[in-house]
Amino acid sequence: MKFDDYYISEELKKNLSKLGFTKPTDIQFKSIPPILKGEDVLAIAQTGTGKTAAFAIPVIDILHKRRIKQRAEGIRCLVMVPTRELAQQITEVFEKLSRHTKVKAFGIYGGVEQEQQITKLNDGFDVLIATPGRMFDLISQGHLRVDRIEILILDEADHMLDLGFIKDIQDIKKKLKQNHQTLFFSATINETIKKLAYSLVRNAIRIQVSPKDPVAKNVEHSVVFIEMDDKRFFLERMIKENPESKILVFVRTKVRAERVKTAMERVGIESITIHGDKDQRDRFGVMNRFKKGDVKILIATDISSRGIDIPNVDYVINYDLPDKSENYVHRVGRTGRGREKGLAISFCSKEEKPILDEIQEFLGSKITVIEMSKTEYKEILEVAQEKEGDTNWKSVIHEIEQNEEWLKKKGKKPKR
Ligand code: ADP
Ligand code: MG
């Protein structure tokens, strides 16, 4: 079945075709009809399978056709997401899909001035995409009305319900229109959260695509055993062996992100970092540069593990294993999106083996191990260390030479 055959508005069809979406993905095929019918839906499908459009398409169609009231009366659909980057990304998808329809979408998130967002909110919107912190602030300050909301969506639903906002979400639901529709989307969900999710919906339709293996089928993933202190040499080697590749490197903490960046800088590799300590404008800037491919290496914490849709990421490297098993699925799911294929490699040290076991238990299967002989391991290490020595020496000489040139130009004698 093609989108052309769907009973959805012509404007929406045109927008889909402009994006190059001709056929629905599995999750879209299964979710669109029940959402259009007004059912509550709990949908689980692997990363990169088009979950955003699976809810955006029917929501836009519903609001486009149902719209009779004035926009000033308040927003009609609320999409809650865990991070600011994701709020921005999903807002963009809504904007692209709702062009020339009667539906207008807007994103609100923390880390930037709220005044501008308040002014914008007063213009009136139909769909609001929001991170919880800023949203609850705006509601409590009386800038955001939720009583007209007909559809509530939680993207990355398991994480949203796990973030400690459950009480707020329950409270919000009491304020929404009585017969509102609730939609949950995610790539992962555990039993506890599933129960919680069910307590928030009415007779939800449960849609699950490929439940056996939570890792997306387009991602080939493996693990290699590398000691903590040696990881940087192996990362350097991987990057240098794949000079054209776009690589997303995940680390455990903000501090480690900066350290890995410095280590790469020392061996002449340019990279950028993204984590929670960065100014929000920086974060958006970094994400855009990586999306465009201006910088090929992005070092990130788990803040970027969920939902972010970056085109053409060739490799995901788990420089450190994730603390939460489900984040393994989300991290490796940053590659192999849509029809693309992707590769993911995890560096696992001795200390991290228990974490690896937990991840494998979560996945319900073993991760392929890349075998490396001791000699091979040592060789890689020696070459990298030798080169590191070289690079340092060379860069010191280069620095001295440049300094001398500069002094000469200024007519001064270089000091030794
Ligand atoms: P998920 O939320 O499931 O991880 P996204 O909604 O971010 O996935 O979509 C992943 C990618 O697939 C995006 O780049 C999106 O543009 C693309 N995509 C979504 N639906 C379709 C479709 N029907 N045809 C082609 N590409 C699609
Ligand atoms: Mg998503």
What's the SSE pattern? HHEHEHEHEHEHHEHEEHEHEHEEHEHEH
* Residue-averaged pLDDT: 91
Q: Which CATH architecture of the largest domain?
A: 3-Layer(aba) Sandwich
Q: Total helix count?
A: 15
* CATH level 1 name of the largest domain: Alpha Beta
The helix fraction, in percent, is 40-55%
Low-confidence stretches: none
Strand content: 5-15%
Oligomer: single chain
As a whole number of angstroms, the C-alpha radius of gyration is: 24 Å
Give me the CATH superfamily of the largest domain: P-loop containing nucleotide triphosphate hydrolases
| Biggest sheet details | 7 strands, parallel
Q: What fold name goes in the CATH topology slot of the largest domain?
A: Rossmann fold
Number of domains: 2
Distance between the termini: 76 Å
Bound chemical compounds:
adenosine-5'-diphosphate, magnesium ion
Structural class assignment = alpha/beta
Strands side by side in the biggest sheet: 3-4-2-5-6-1-7
β-strand number? 14
Task: Give a quick precis of the structure.
This protein has helices spanning 10-18, 26-37, 51-66, 84-98, 114-123, 132-140, 157-162, 166-175, 191-198, 231-241, 254-266, 280-292, 325-332, 353-363, 374-409; strands at residues 41-44, 77-80, 105-108, 127-130, 151-155, 181-186, 205-208, 219-225, 247-250, 272-274, 297-300, 315-318, 342-348, 368-369.
